[in-house]
């Protein structure tokens, strides 16, 4: 059986020292091993940006695509081969700006893909512009007077769309982060995991320290029931979205693949491409 | 008895015009006639003038006719808009209900037939289109029996009574016209056909059927005219073969989902028209860069922007060849008939996997939606070739620590072995960033050159595609070579027949492979002609530019374009050729 070391490769990430993404990478590698996966059974599809490089840092199949389209690529891959464990990953710009349309529809569609967003509330690779997760008033290169747009609340959005699995974690809490990813991998259907992954170079506001002071671990909230969507929404609003843990899970909602008529358990890519002459003739006869 | 005839039915969209055309043409097809139909419609659901022009013949045909013999009109607008196409003593069969009148200067026979009244008497006003079919039958001399099977196929699920009522409507329409006495009525009775069994299909159906036969099992697409029939067919058929269609949120998702699925090992496709293809261009570059096979259909319509969404045009050529940023290997093929659409789609999937690159099947609205008779398709011609794809259970050498499978290994032909996610010891990286043989990002100049040369070197003019240029060149030395692509093949051929009768020597070369450009094959044909006329449904001469750029001989090339939203008529091309040969220009 594979251990987390089997999911490592020797590629040195091009992330800045102290970047939150290192923990996400480590947690992912641990989570894969913990749920009993082998490297060839995993495919990571990532977007563009600092975080998008993650697919190259895991010893598994990986596709680093175009900006904002990790989710449709990942869904296409999962539909092609249900036997694979498919993870999509990228930054807040990738998922909530250029790719927001796909995020919303991936939630609606519910293909069994685990989506890990590395949310640093800023654009890092382009050297420090505002992100849709930047708070109003946040000063960046592109918003020297402070952002006048409101930030997106991805978890509230996901809940409003009746997502089957909504979680949030923080790079400093490797144990919780690993656990949350494991549960996301095990969840049948789309899972959204937003990870506060601080940018130590360009975001001087939402720092490790800032998060430590502001986030609330859901485990510490007495009587919190993550099967209760209304409570999840209320809790998010009460804490301005700054909670960690599995916020909501609906284990009853079947994944998209299970709802497709005639869709086999065995991966589509493993099935025979040929049609029989009898099938061919029958299809042709419809045009006679 | 006549050998060919042109018939048109028109009215407000949603009035049953399509089904009148469908029923008559299906019956004619089963009788063994050759057919070619073109629908004129608007981008709306109900209302607005719509018509179907159907040409029927005892011989193969590949074009709409210049003129019209019979016009069936459900409203005055149909007469006003179309009567000018009628031959001098053609016939208008019009519903008596709207008091039809003949526009000034039109000499055709106007026969007012109580379509609606008869339909109401039979039981339902909607059946007026069946009465009209019957009325047409009286002129064409078709036996009623030709319709029974067609009507049963269409309505039996609604009950025998519905079948009988429809048959009655046809019969009464026929009888009404038969009893009229009309002087100077031309002979519209169709000569006996060869009785051969043929198919009657639109190009989009042929592409979709071809995709099933080629083993495509996943489609991701966003609805758009004139491509939606492809996804609609596959939505109906793929579940039977274990596959599915995903209607995506947009074309960005459609193409990237298609790429993801192909990366996963399924033969997947997407289809759209110009606006959708414009959105897909970045991702097509990803497929080229990552050497991921994928098949994309572009059904051209009037552009730019929303343009003329339901009208004929061929103006996406340069965009399909060159719109992606950077330089990638890409194949663009252009079938010219429904039959070619079927076989070419199978070839497209094979070439996509053989060359590990995107393949664009370029059609135009007339190919995609024009309905035509097709000889029975051959099961034996369906061959699946997956190139250098390795099976899931491939016995690969154990990878060492941190070692990756050389997915982009430099090889003689530039094509590397491909492992699919899930394959043991096949792990590699895939990225749109320039990469090394294992797929890892690399910016080294040496690697860059090697990889660019590898990717671009995969394709040459001869990619093994059937008939890159369809040549019909009976003359060793021709006065004129006419070049076109997509739906104009039959129209050009018909124009040539007329020119030959005038003693002109005209050859034809129809371009089916647009990228890589078949320079040598075209040059060979062009050097044997005094003049070259390139016929295109666009305003700027896109294929003309490609020929000048690749082949040269610019001094003898002329462009003849049409961009009013309508397909060419044979007479237009005939006249353009004559102008060019007589006056030296057009």
Automatic annotation (TrEMBL), chain A:
Residues 199-264 form the Pyruvate ferredoxin oxidoreductase beta subunit C-terminal domain. It holds the Pfam family TPP_enzyme_C. Its EC number is 1.2.7.11, 1.2.7.3. Keywords: Iron, Iron-sulfur, Magnesium, Metal-binding, Oxidoreductase, Thiamine pyrophosphate. One of its GO terms (biological process) is cellular respiration. Gene3D superfamilies: 3.40.50.970. GO terms for molecular function: 2-oxoglutarate synthase activity; iron-sulfur cluster binding; metal ion binding; thiamine pyrophosphate binding. It comes from the Bacteria. Its cofactor is thiamine diphosphate; Mg(2+); [4Fe-4S] cluster. Residues 48-195 form the Thiamine pyrophosphate enzyme TPP-binding domain. It is an enzyme of class 1 (oxidoreductase). InterPro entries: 2-oxoacid:Fd_oxidoreductase, OFOB, PFO_beta_C, THDP-binding, TPP_enzyme_TPP-bd. The keyword Transcription regulation does not apply. The keyword Oxidoreductase applies. PANTHER family: 2-OXOGLUTARATE OXIDOREDUCTASE SUBUNIT KORB (PTHR48084:SF4), 2-OXOGLUTARATE OXIDOREDUCTASE SUBUNIT KORB-RELATED (PTHR48084). This is 2-oxoglutarate ferredoxin oxidoreductase subunit beta. It comes from Croceifilum oryzae.
TrEMBL record, chain B:
Residues 210-453 form the Pyruvate flavodoxin/ferredoxin oxidoreductase pyrimidine binding domain. One of its GO terms (molecular function) is 2-oxoglutarate synthase activity. The keyword Endoplasmic reticulum does not apply. Residues 14-174 form the Pyruvate/ketoisovalerate oxidoreductase catalytic domain. It comes from the Bacteria. InterPro entries: 2-oxoacid/accept_OxRdtase_asu, PFOR_II, Pyruvate:ferred/Flavod_OxRd, Pyrv/ketoisovalerate_OxRed_cat, Pyrv_Fd/Flavodoxin_OxRdtase_N, Pyrv_flavodox_OxRed_cen, THDP-binding, Transketo_C/PFOR_II. One of its GO terms (biological process) is response to oxidative stress. Residues 478-573 form the Pyruvate:ferredoxin oxidoreductase core domain. This is 2-oxoglutarate ferredoxin oxidoreductase subunit alpha. It comes from Croceifilum oryzae. The lineage of its organism: Bacteria, Bacillati, Bacillota, Bacilli, Bacillales.
């Amino acid at each position: 059986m594979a251990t987390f070391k089997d999911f490592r490769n020797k590629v040195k990430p091009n992330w800045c020292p102290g970047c939150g993404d290192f923990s996400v990478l480590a947690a992912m590698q641990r989570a894969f091993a913990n749920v009993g996966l082998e490297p060839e059974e995993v495919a990571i599809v990532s977007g563009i940006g600092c975080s998008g490089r993650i697919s190259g840092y895991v010893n598994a199949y990986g596709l680093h695509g175009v900006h904002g389209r990790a989710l449709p690529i990942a869904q296409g891959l999962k539909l092609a081969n249900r036997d694979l464990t498919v993870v999509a990953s990228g930054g807040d710009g990738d998922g909530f700006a250029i790719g927001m349309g796909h995020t919303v529809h991936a939630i609606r569609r519910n293909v069994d893909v685990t989506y890990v967003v590395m949310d640093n509330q800023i654009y890092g690779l382009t050297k420090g512009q505002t992100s849709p997760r930047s708070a109003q008033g946040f000063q960046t290169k592109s918003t020297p007077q402070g952002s006048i747009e409101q930030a997106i609340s991805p978890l509230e959005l996901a809940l409003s769309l009746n997502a089957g699995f909504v979680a949030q974690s923080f790079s400093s809490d490797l144990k919780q982060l690993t656990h949350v990813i494991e549960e996301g991998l095990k969840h049948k259907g789309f899972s959204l995991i937003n990870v506060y992954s601080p940018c130590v170079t360009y975001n001087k506001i939402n720092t490790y320290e800032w998060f430590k002071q502001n986030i609330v671990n859901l485990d510490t909230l007495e009587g919190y029931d993550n099967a209760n969507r209304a409570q999840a929404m209320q809790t998010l609003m009460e804490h301005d979205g700054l909670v960690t843990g599995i916020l909501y899970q609906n284990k009853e909602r079947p994944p998209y693949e299970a709802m497709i008529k005639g869709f086999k358990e065995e991966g589509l890519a493993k099935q025979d491409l040929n049609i029989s002459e009898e099938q061919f003739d029958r299809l042709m006869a419809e045009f006679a | 008895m006549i050998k060919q005839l042109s018939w048109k039915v028109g009215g407000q969209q949603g009035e049953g015009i399509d089904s009148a055309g469908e029923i008559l043409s299906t019956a004619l097809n089963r009788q063994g006639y050759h057919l070619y139909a073109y629908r004129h419609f608007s981008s709306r659901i109900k209302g607005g003038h719509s018509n179907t022009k159907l040409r029927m013949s005892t011989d193969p045909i590949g074009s709409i006719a210049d003129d019209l013999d019979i016009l069936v009109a459900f409203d005055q607008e149909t007469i006003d808009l179309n009567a000018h196409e009628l031959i001098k003593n053609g016939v208008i069969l019009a519903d008596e209900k709207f008091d039809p009148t003949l526009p000034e200067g039109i000499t055709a026979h106007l026969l007012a037939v109580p379509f609606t009244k008869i339909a109401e008497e039979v039981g339902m006003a909607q059946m007026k289109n069946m009465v009209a079919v019957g009325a047409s039958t009286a002129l064409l001399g078709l036996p009623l029996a030709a319709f029974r099977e067609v009507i049963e196929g269409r309505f039996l699920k609604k009950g025998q009574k519905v079948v009988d009522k429809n048959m009655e409507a046809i019969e009464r329409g026929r009888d009404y016209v038969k009893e009229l006495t009309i002087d100077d009525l031309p002979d519209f009775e169709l000569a006996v056909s060869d009785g051969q069994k043929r198919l009657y299909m639109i190009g989009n159906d042929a592409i979709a059927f071809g995709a099933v036969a080629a083993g495509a099992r996943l489609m991701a697409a966003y609805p758009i005219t004139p491509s939606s029939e492809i996804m609609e067919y596959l939505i109906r058929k793929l579940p039977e073969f274990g596959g599915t269609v995903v209607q995506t949120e947009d074309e960005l998702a459609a193409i990237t989902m298609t790429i993801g699925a192909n990366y996963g090992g399924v033969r997947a496709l997407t289809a759209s028209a110009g606006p959708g293809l414009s959105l897909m261009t970045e991702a097509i570059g990803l497929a080229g860069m990552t050497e991921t096979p994928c098949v994309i259909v572009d059904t051209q319509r009037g552009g730019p922007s929303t343009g003329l969404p339901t009208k004929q045009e061929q103006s996406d050529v340069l965009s399909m060849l060159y719109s992606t940023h950077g330089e990638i290997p890409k194949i663009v093929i252009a079938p010219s008939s429904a039959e070619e659409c079927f076989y070419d789609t199978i070839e497209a999937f094979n070439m996509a996997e053989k060359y590990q690159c995107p393949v664009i099947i370029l059609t135009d609205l007339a190919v995609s939606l024009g309905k035509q008779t097709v000889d029975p398709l051959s099961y034996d011609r369906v061959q699946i070739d997956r190139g250098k794809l390795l099976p899931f259970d491939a016995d690969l050498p154990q990878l060492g620590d941190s070692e990756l499978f050389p997915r982009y290994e430099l090889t003689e032909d530039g094509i590397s072995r491909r492992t699919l996610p899930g394959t043991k010891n096949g792990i590699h990286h895939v990225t749109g960033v320039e990469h090394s043989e294992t797929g890892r990002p690399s910016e080294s100049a040496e690697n860059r050159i090697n990889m660019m040369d590898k990717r671009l070197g995969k394709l040459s003019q001869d990619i093994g595609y059937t008939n890159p240029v369809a040549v019909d060149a009976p003359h060793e030395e021709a006065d004129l070579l006419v070049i076109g692509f997509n739906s104009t093949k039959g129209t050009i051929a018909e124009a040539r027949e007329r020119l030959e009768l005038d003693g002109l020597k005209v050859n034809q070369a129809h371009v089916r492979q647009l990228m890589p450009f078949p320079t040598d094959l075209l040059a060979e044909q062009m050097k044997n002609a005094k003049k070259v006329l390139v016929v295109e449904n666009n305003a700027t001469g896109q294929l003309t530019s490609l020929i000048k750029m690749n082949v040269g001989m610019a001094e003898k090339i002329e462009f003849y374009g049409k961009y009013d939203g309508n397909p060419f008529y044979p007479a237009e091309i005939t006249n353009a050729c004559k102008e060019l040969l007589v006056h030296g220009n057009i």
